[in-house]
Automatic annotation (TrEMBL):
Official protein name in the record: Type-5 uracil-DNA glycosylase
Residues passing through the membrane, by range: none
Coiled coil: none
Keyword Hydrolase in annotation: yes
Lineage: Bacteria, Bacillati, Actinomycetota, Actinomycetes, Kitasatosporales
InterPro entries: UDG_Type-4/5, UdgB-like, Uracil-DNA_glycosylase-like, Uracil-DNA_glycosylase-like_sf
Assigned protein family: Belongs to the uracil-DNA glycosylase (UDG) superfamily. Type 5 (UDGb) family.
Domain Uracil-DNA glycosylase-like: 74-253
Pfam families (UniProt xref): UDG
UniProtKB keywords: 4Fe-4S, DNA damage, DNA repair, Hydrolase, Iron, Iron-sulfur, Metal-binding
Region (Disordered): 1-24
Amino acid sequence: MDEARGTEASGSSTDPDDPAFPARRAPRCRSLDALDAQVVRCRACPRLVAWREEVAATKRAAFRDWEYWGRPVPGFGPPDAALAVVGLAPAAHGGNRTGRMFTGDASGDFLFAALHAVGLASQAEATHAGDGLELRGVRLAAPVHCAPPDNKPTPRERDNCRPWLAAELELLSPGLRTVVVLGAFGWQALLPVLGAAGWQVPRPRPKFGHGVQVTLAASDEGRAPLHLLGCYHPSQRNTSTGRLTLAMLVEVFREAARLSGL
């Protein structure tokens, strides 16, 4: 056995099956491109790996001619984004199929229609990774990068994946001004990351709610305060029942754009 393979077998940072792979690799990334390249290699959560690959193999009848992505889905958007949007995890037949966040499912259709209405996306629809969609000053991120069964990651899976989000926000931090959080899961997952990344999170921690706004002071001199906005997740359940309307989502992004200087 050569030295490199022996090191991997003993739990090195280069072994994507190692549960500690995200924690070891994410802090070493010096650019979002480098981070994304490591994210797509990750196999740290066996349940998620098995599920995403099973879905990619069995497919949905409507997409039987697709070659599913079937890997972790990286963030999407420019490296100098002033606004980050944090969701939950890729959809089994959305991001897990197309390889791009919020692309190819009803939630993404709703999200991109709102971003386009505010001028933050070049088009209102997202069908596949090569469809020409560009985001303007916005980066899509997620606490969990693999599609989970029933859209429910476990706390351990969330924590395993946390270093990727922490590194992503750190790389964005020079220009980051606002984060829109879609849903309570993302809110709860994000607050500890922001605290560790250099912003002061109030205690008790602010509770999630649609339209909630919190401004986090920076812990370090030279870093700008961060505006945190809560928004219901554009899941089919929320949009079909009217809990979240397109007008409500547009209003959130209009405010986020204002706060971000976009």
